[in-house]
Write a structure and sequence with these properties.
Oligomer: single chain
CATH topology: Rossmann fold
CATH class: Alpha Beta
Number of domains: 1
Number of helices: 6
Strand content: 15-25%
Radius of gyration: 14 Å
């Protein structure tokens, strides 16, 4: 049985690129363009993993995160964001990993596999603040042109 992943991102190009990559990797993929749609899709498809942008219209990524983790705290969440300095807040919130855009896709896929394989008690410990990120992508250094 293939794992279901929900991608919530307001950027159409990122959403569709992730959909294609994840489908090639064998995942079932559902997408949403804003936080409210993300909550609705989450309830509809019951994903095994969530990729969540923070800067979302209608309902922010953090508001959606709060609602989604209350609906099912066992679903690992990977934050994908263009916002800087979110790692500490994400760690305190109990997310599985945080990736700053532009995404390192091979590392993202590896982190997804790790989070999907971890025991539920490890995930619950992270939500309770007793366990740190499973993975974290460091921001890429700014290029000087």
């Amino acid at each position: 049985m293939s794992k279901k992943v929900l991608v919530v991102d307001d950027d159409t190009q990122i959403r569709e690129a992730l959909r294609k990559v994840l489908q090639v990797e064998g995942y079932e993929v559902a997408v949403a363009a804003d936080g409210q749609e993300g909550i609705e899709q989450f309830q509809r498809v019951s994903p095994h993993l969530l990729l969540l942008d923070l800067n979302l219209p209608v309902k922010s990524g953090w508001d959606a995160f709060e609602r989604l983790t209350s609906l099912n705290p066992l679903v690992p969440v990977i934050i994908i964001t263009g916002q800087r300095n979110q790692a500490e807040l994400a760690a305190q919130a109990g997310v599985g990993a945080l990736f700053e855009k532009p995404l390192d896709v091979p590392l993202l896929l590896q982190t997804m596999r790790e989070l999907l394989a971890e025991p539920p008690d490890t995930h619950l410990k992270r939500l309770a603040g007793l366990h740190r990120f499973a993975g974290h992508a460091q921001p890429k250094p700014a290029r000087e042109d």
